[in-house]
Design goal:
There is one protein chain. The chain is of the alpha/beta class. The chain folds into two domains: 15-74; 90-261, Zn-dependent exopeptidases (Aminopeptidase). The protein is 42% helix and 11% strand. Strands 2-1-3-5-4 form a five-stranded mixed sheet, with helices on one face.
């Protein structure tokens, strides 16, 4: 758009005079930008060196600080990552056969892995609601090597085949080859008491198999982590209950873990509603 109010124009300066001033301005501007760059880099490096400790290295705190520094210096709008929940008490849930093989396979296509994952997910939601950081782990998860947690429970179910009228109920086996076998025993006691009370299923103490007592995860995690494997029921005689009342199955496992974490050994079952 044109402007009709054109101010009086001053006589142009000499060509030599204009050229000399242009070079001076350019030099000053370049020096200012160089000082600005050096100062900004110094502040950023000082911030990084301050946070450069083993506990902070590559943590969310460092990452957010770097993002905020870049946002300030470059004028770019950046949203920091959410605060980490690593400060919460940690519990691990291993989903039996997850991402390895199907486990037991029923005639209609239902697999043990599918049901284990459903149960494990509900247990994770249950414990998360109670304020715990819960890791949902695969059968051979690389995170299991030297894994540290307040408790670790591996969830499985038993065969789809009919092997007798007494093939109903659940089994629990603890890892006794760690630094604190009494903790694994206490976790087992809590799981047995709470799971039986909430689900009504029978505890089959005499049907614990060698596969359970020599479970591979027992030897992978850190020796301070109490580990227990549970067969939540049989996919034959217990199938209807396991598939139609999975929330109760999950509540029984979660309350067993909470019983142990709260030191309520031998207390009556207290079921908390699922989220």
């Amino acid at each position: 758009m044109e402007n009709s109010d054109v101010p009086d124009q001053k006589p142009p300066r000499s060509k030599t005079r204009r050229t000399s001033r242009s070079h001076g301005d350019t030099a000053k501007f370049s020096l200012f930008r160089a000082l600005q760059t050096v100062l900004g880099t110094g502040i950023l490096l000082a911030t990084l060196f301050t946070l450069w400790t083993p506990s902070n290295l590559f943590s969310g705190q460092v990452f957010n600080t770097m993002l905020l520094a870049l946002q300030t210096s470059e004028g770019v709008e950046v949203t920091p990552t959410p605060a980490s929940s690593d400060n919460l008490p940690r519990v691990g849930i291993v989903v039996g056969h997850w991402k390895t093989q199907s486990g037991a396979v029923c005639a209609d296509g239902l697999t043990e892995q599918q049901l284990n994952l459903r149960m494990g997910t509900l247990v994770m939601q249950y414990l998360t609601k109670q304020g715990y950081q819960v890791d949902l782990l695969e059968e051979f998860d690389e995170r299991l090597v030297q894994y540290k947690a307040l408790a670790l429970v591996s969830i499985h179910t038993d065969t789809c085949e009919f092997i007798g009228d007494d093939a109903t109920g659940f089994k629990v086996a603890p890892a006794l080859s760690n630094s604190y076998p009494e903790k694994a025993d206490q976790l087992t006691d809590c799981l047995v008491d709470q799971y039986a009370s909430i689900t009504g299923l029978k505890y089959q103490i005499n049907k614990v198999t060698e596969d359970m007592t020599s479970y591979h995860t027992f030897y992978e995690v850190n020796s301070i982590t109490p580990v227990v494997v549970i067969d939540a029921g049989y996919l034959n005689l217990d199938r209807q209950f396991l598939t139609e009342q999975t929330d109760k199955v999950a509540a029984g496992i979660a309350e067993g873990i909470l019983c142990y974490l709260n030191g309520n050994y031998g207390d009556e079952a207290q079921e908390t509603p699922l989220p």
